[in-house]
């Protein structure tokens, strides 16, 4: 299949709507997904990037109670805040929606029914945790204790992050509620379970078939979980969530589908909503049912179990492909993820990000003080791609000043400035020297190298290679020193033509990472209109439901993943600085903010 006809689903994890996002969040699920999607669109693929805010479950209710508002009011507020955060980051969603839409409820209930009809969901009496003081169900993740398997002190009620095993809250030794520190009370209740053991064999084949393709940490973690697959509860005693679509359960206000179950279905429901909004309700099928279509899911490592085990099991079960067989649900068989692209964790000045302890910088605050492309660059070159990584203000300032300002910004400024000042437009090249040809060949060849790394979500390797082209071009200019050749204007034209060609190439190579500054370079070089599309925040309606805000956009622009010859005679715009040099006092100011909050 040619790249121009390839359908690629990009599925960034759904941010939870209980507060604004900080840069630790977006370094895992958001920015890598956007860099990948922008590259794939430039390479000719038909990309569908969908996600939204995850809005159900007890944590939303708990936060709403603290603030004295309804769960819906809290979700409305933070869904809008998060959409604004992601808009500010330039996240090129085809649709960023939410899990409180009527469309989402309908699709979630359809997936439930398909799994239930095929025998992969069954009811079971179990012991549920409730708060003795409020009588409200405690979510598994809000209960902590000692792991009964490895002894780790700090295991959660759903899994132990130390040994990776799935747990139930009642399994924990000395369990306590994270909400108020009390010991939970366990009472008998009936819930629906997803029969994960029925997928052990098919999941094993699926995962082992991805050896050498997935990041090793993700695959190893997922394969280890196969050894002890247990049925997993998919409903809870809650008053805030998607109703269970079965007679006798549908109208029970105390029983809802568990938030993790409805959230992973969101990738599918958002695709269905996007298709309806385009005027072609069946358009989603090209990404979900074509066997040649690819799908990439982006998240932090704490979400691997849901995306590498549970969501594939749900998709396989709905399609009738587990141990019990079955027939596809009414929407047809659905594709499992091509790759689960999980990042490790980003820390900040040696500490875990924590909103409650104020070890944090929120996206909105960051963007008010710094260039969005400076953050995007930092995440690409120094983010937690393969290992936990520490964000420090000193390293952020150093990379901004030494790499963005002194390398890329400097190349653009001096190349465009000299050409605009001396010729007013792109100069025509005369006879090229070996040095000229070597640099342009180096620049052209970088498209294959950078693209190969980007296609495999290796962001550090890809942006490092792109910046190496920039450094080579800076060395070339210094070596050729066109400012010294006042008596040889024809040679100056050739040098500046060569430099501008490489600036144009580098602008393209850096577009997935730095779309805002690439747009500026495009305009400096005489480009008209939109080079790399940006998302739009808009309010939409839904029959029978309230209006809500979404992110969407038109990303069919001029940007293509190739070197395009620049045209002599195109007028040049006098450059303005691409990036702002940061004073080192920024480090002390930001550290002081952390100390004083």
From TrEMBL:
A motif ('KMSKS' region) lies at residues 352-356. Belongs to the class-I aminoacyl-tRNA synthetase family. MetG type 1 subfamily. Residues 9-415 form the Methionyl/Leucyl tRNA synthetase domain. Zn(2+) binds at residues 147, 150, 160, 163. A motif ('HIGH' region) lies at residues 15-25. Its EC number is 6.1.1.10. GO terms for cellular component: cytosol. This is Methionine--tRNA ligase. It comes from Actinomadura darangshiensis. It comes from the Bacteria. Is required not only for elongation of protein synthesis but also for the initiation of all mRNA translation through initiator tRNA(fMet) aminoacylation. Signal peptide: none annotated. Its cofactor is Zn(2+). The keyword Ligase applies. Residues 426-527 form the Methionyl-tRNA synthetase anticodon-binding domain. Binds 1 zinc ion per subunit.
């Amino acid at each position: 299949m040619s790249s121009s006809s390839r359908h690629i689903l990009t599925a960034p994890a759904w941010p939870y709507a209980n507060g604004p996002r900080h840069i630790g969040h977006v370094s895992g699920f958001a920015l890598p997904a956007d860099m990948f999607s922008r590259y794939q669109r430039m390479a000719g693929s038909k990309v569908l990037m969908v996600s939204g805010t995850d809005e159900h479950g007890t944590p939303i209710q708990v936060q709403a109670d603290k603030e004295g508002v309804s769960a819906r009011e809290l979700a409305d507020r933070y869904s809008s805040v998060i959409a604004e955060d992601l808009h500010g980051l330039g996240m090129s969603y085809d649709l960023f929606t939410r899990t409180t839409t009527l469309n989402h409820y309908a699709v979630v209930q359809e997936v439930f029914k398909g799994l239930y009809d095929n025998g992969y969901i069954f009811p079971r009496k179990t012991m549920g945790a409730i708060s003795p003081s409020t009588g409200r169900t405690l979510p598994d993740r809000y209960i902590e204790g000692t792991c009964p398997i490895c002894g780790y002190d700090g295991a959660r009620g759903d899994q132990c992050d130390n040994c990776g095993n799935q747990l139930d809250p009642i399994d924990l030794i000395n369990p306590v509620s994270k909400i108020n520190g009390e010991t939970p009370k366990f009472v008998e209740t009936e819930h629906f379970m997803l029969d994960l053991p029925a997928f052990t064999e098919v999941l094993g084949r699926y995962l082992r078939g991805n050896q050498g393709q997935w990041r090793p940490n993700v695959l190893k973690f997922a394969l280890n979980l196969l050894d002890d697959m247990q049925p997993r509860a998919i409903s809870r005693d809650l008053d805030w969530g998607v109703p269970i679509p079965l007679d006798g359960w549908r109208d029970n206000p105390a029983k809802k589908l568990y938030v993790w179950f409805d959230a992973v279905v969101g990738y599918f429901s958002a695709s269905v909503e996007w298709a309806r909004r385009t005027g072609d309700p069946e358009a989603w099928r090209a990404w979900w049912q074509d066997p040649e279509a690819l799908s990439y899911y982006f998240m932090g490592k704490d979400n691997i179990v849901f995306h590498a085990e549970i969501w594939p099991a749900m998709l396989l079960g709905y399609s009738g492909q587990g141990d019990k067989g079955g027939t596809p649900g009414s929407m047809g068989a659905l594709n499992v993820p091509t790759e689960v692209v999980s990042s490790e964790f980003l820390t900040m000045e040696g500490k875990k990000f924590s909103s409650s302890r104020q070890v944090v910088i929120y996206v909105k605050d960051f963007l008010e003080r710094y260039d969005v492309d400076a953050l995007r660059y930092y995440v690409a070159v120094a983010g937690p791609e393969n290992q936990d990584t520490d964000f420090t203000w000193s390293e952020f300032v150093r990379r901004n000043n030494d790499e963005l300002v002194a390398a890329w910004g400097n190349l653009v400024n001096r190349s465009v400035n000299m050409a605009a000042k001396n010729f007013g437009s792109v100069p025509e090249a005369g006879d090229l020297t070996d040095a000229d040809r070597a640099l342009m060949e180096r620049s052209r060849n970088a498209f294959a190298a950078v693209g190969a790394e980007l296609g495999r979500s290796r962001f550090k390797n890809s942006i490092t290679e792109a910046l190496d082209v920039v450094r080579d071009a800076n060395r070339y200019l210094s070596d050729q020193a066109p400012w010294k050749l006042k008596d040889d204007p024809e040679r100056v034209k050739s040098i500046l033509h060569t430099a501008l060609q490489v600036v144009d190439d580098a602008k393209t190579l850096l577009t997935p990472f730095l779309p805002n500054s690439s747009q500026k370079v495009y305009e400096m070089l005489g480009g008209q209109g939109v080079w790399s599309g940006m998302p739009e925040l808009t309010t939409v309606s839904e029959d029978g439901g309230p209006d809500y805000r979404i992110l969407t956009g038109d990303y069919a622009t001029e940007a293509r993943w190739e070197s395009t010859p620049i045209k002599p005679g195109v007028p040049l715009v006098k450059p303005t600085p691409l990036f702002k040099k940061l004073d080192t006092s920024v480090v002390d100011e930001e550290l002081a903010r952390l100390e004083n909050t």
